[in-house]
Design a protein that fits this description.
Chain A is of the alpha+beta class and about 50 residues long. Helix content of chain A is about 20%, strand content about 15%. Residues about 10-20 of chain A have low confidence and may be disordered. With about 150 residues, chain B is of the alpha+beta class. The chains are: A alpha+beta (about 50), B alpha+beta (about 150). At the A-B interface, helix 1 and strand 1 of A face helix 1, strand 1, strand 2, helix 3 and helix 4 of B.
Chain lengths: ~50, ~150
């Protein structure tokens, strides 16, 4: 079962900092699928225009 | 999205904890064609087999992106007949973001998920009544309109 977690809203031992400060984007579908299966998560696929 | 939404701490944390983020430049083949993408930003929720369950087009503020992702996760469960898990995510959405743009669809989907779980049509009617009261002119209120007769 995929358990959804909400962001921390209080300092819970991270010194008040988010666990990650930027999104660590995958850039290849195969790598994203591998991680999705391993980590039991869904994929957020963002098609973007870098302008 | 890059200037406002993706740097937001709550968005970063939610994605880190719940999603595998995959970014593809619009136009890159074959993915742009495979997913029939015509405009950006297009955000798609895929399950771990690469199957699409939820799609949005256009900008999302941080307070709208998180509930949209919750809706996407709920749809993955709904589409795979895991209605308890769908309901858990819909409740989180409706509790955490009750005034958000994703809430009407979540109310609708919650009613359907409850019905699928129990075969009791009462949640469908309750979903319609809640939508009618909160969003009298809303799209999801119209979609639920037939349930008033249950």
């Amino acid at each position: 079962m995929i358990e959804v977690s909400f962001p921390e809203t209080e300092d819970q031992g991270t010194g008040g900092m988010a666990m990650e400060d930027t999104i660590k984007w995958e850039t290849e579908m195969a790598a994203a699928l591998d991680r999705a299966r391993t980590e039991n998560k869904n994929i957020l696929l963002d098609f973007f225009n870098p302008g | 999205m890059d200037a406002v939404t993706y740097p937001d701490d709550s968005v970063v944390s939610f994605i880190d904890e719940n999603m595998i983020p995959l970014r593809v430049k619009f136009g890159v083949k074959p993915l742009t064609d495979d997913f029939n993408v015509k405009w950006t930003p297009t955000l798609i929720t895929l399950d771990a087999e690469g199957v699409e369950h939820h799609r949005t087009v256009g900008f999302f503020a941080p307070e709208e992106l998180i509930p949209s992702m919750l809706l996407g996760i709920a749809k993955v469960f709904f589409d795979t007949d895991r209605f308890d898990d769908a309901l858990m995510n819909l409740e989180k959405l409706l509790k955490g973001y009750p005034e958000g743009d994703s809430a009407p669809e979540a109310i609708y989907l919650r009613g359907v998920s409850l019905y699928k779980n129990t075969d009791d049509p009462k949640p469908l009617k309750e979903a319609y009544e809640k939508l009618r009261d909160k969003y009298p002119a809303g799209e999801w209120t119209r979609r639920a309109y037939p349930y008033r007769l249950l």
